[in-house]
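Lab notebook, bench 4. Continuing the backlog of folding jobs that were queued last week. Each job is logged with the same field layout so the records can be merged later without manual cleanup. Today's entry covers DNA ligase, a 651-residue chain. Filled in by technician R.K.

JOB TYPE: sequence-to-structure
TARGET: DNA ligase
LENGTH: 651
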Amino acid sequence: MEDKKKRMRELVDLLNRARRAYEQEDKEIMSNYEYDRLYDELQGLEQELNTTLASSPTVNVGYEVLSELPKERHERPMLSLDKTKDVERLREFLGDQKAMISWKLDGLTIVLTYRGGTLEKAVTRGNGEVGEVITNNARVFRNIPLRIPYEGELVLRGEAVIGYRDFERINEEIGDADAKYKNPRNLCSGSVRQLNNEITAKRNVRFYAFTLVRADGVDFRNSRLYQMEWLAGQGFEVVEHHAVTRETIDGEVKWFADHIAENDVPSDGLVLVYDDIAYGESLGSTAKFPRDSFAFKWADEIRETTLLEIEWSPSRTGLINPVAVFEPVELEGTTVSRASVHNISIMEELELGIGDTIQVYKANMIIPQIADNLTRSGVKDIPKVCPVCGGPARISMENETKTLMCTNPKCQAKHIKAFALFVSRDAMNIEGLSEATLEKFIMNGFIKDFTDIFHLDRHEEEIKNMEGFGEKSYLNLQSSIQNARTTTLPRLVYSLGIPNIGISNARMICRALDNDPQRIMSATEEELDEIQGVGEVIAGTFAEYFADGEHRDLFRRLLDEVEIPEEEEPAGGRDLTGINFVITGSVEHFANRGEVKEEIEKRGGKVTGSVTSKTNYLINNDVNSTSSKNRKARELGVPIISEEEFMKMLS
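JOB STATUS: finished
OUTPUT FIELD FOLLOWS
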């Protein structure tokens, strides 16, 4: 049973990754045949186990916008836990009892209620007595089961969390995120309490169960540890936990301390709760704390060091974030020399000046922070210009917090996505330049516009010495850049990132304008509007882009960097204008499905990702397959043709 649940989670993650790659990155990490096979396997497991996860591709949770989050009183008050930083106090608490020890997750506590096997309600902890109803949002958490095998009323508590990796990624994508969210907990709290659950869905919130409150008619063997097993069997991810006694408490605390650094899920300590449910309940509670459980907080390791400089790091949102650079110190087993200060208000509160003696620590044993400034010489020399683009920088107030902003709308740091599109597969197809790498190159001044990417050899030694790079990575990158110098005009046009212009539109426009760069730059809105498949919106944005002298200059300079061989006319010349195709499964005569798509689009046809009533042909070498696309095509009467038949059609 456990193996099947584990397999179900693996399938959900794998299928979602494949769907995301295909739909958002135009990249295939598995064949359609393989996707359909795994999808069918997942459906079978969901039916067998009577469990469906919220993130499963077999369900489509509708998005909804609320005007406000309703409030609701908890059935029983949710008390805080008594805390200690002393292991000896935990040993005293344990006495002769066995207990369960687990991570104390640093997120937002949520109470879930299931009835008849389906999620009925989700409520935040709030003030412990009254919380906010966030059922709509809980349905789009990454891993909450929407359906479980148990049909009675189940009430449980758990923690909604956002992992460190997602926090770093999301924080860059949200306007003013640096001002609002200083840690994963704050971001999670804001995400869980959104009025629009489409926003929640994009934040990758996960839920980890830590307490079963009620499930009538189930024998839990008077054991908290068994309750956790049972919850896992219902499809919940439960917080990592171990059995512990006073004899093993030292080893268990050490085990968790040794593993916190590799934990992506934020944690600010440990929780002990007696395994014996009846014994724990018989103890009752004080006015503030339950007597059956105890929290352990990590004692922060603090080191003194000297502040060497404040480095100013621009972000995609326009905020220029201060980073403290100090004499390296050993903290929690690693060497640390940098800590984010977040904003000018915190700098002023700490009165940070170069040469000051500061105390540093790792928050939750993970994130370097400044604890105090012992010499407080005062804040000086806040930059007047952005360190990346040289544009004016100004101090602004965001949520009663002083921040430094770059005011230049064309600052390269604000346009990482544009550079990422330029190097993407359908554009210039340069491997080795992820968004993170592009960001580093831009911050270091290696890249100011697209043409600089073709001259990264000017910074060879600096790149080779960057973290994550070396001789081999650098040579691979240079090889990919040289290969990208031979390209097509549609790819080059698409790489510019003109609003509404995808690779298919770029091909249509270039073909209609005889692949002539001069005609492309000077095409009028009226001329473009006459091209079949190019509407007035696309014509307007395309003409507007090239009406800008800077854009024309950039395009000319890019043309000097690349070689565009004369495009061959499609052999046979069959015109596919107005014909819609869907391609699925593996191909034999073409290198990949992308080449089939390119051949169709060269001839004026269109390729989409899903079969609809507008589809004219589904290309699949396995014509008799029972895949979802084949089934849909048969339902709609869409002809399913093999690659051989498609090639005959071309000739």
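OBSERVATION: The longest strand covers residues 319-331.
SIGNED: R.K.
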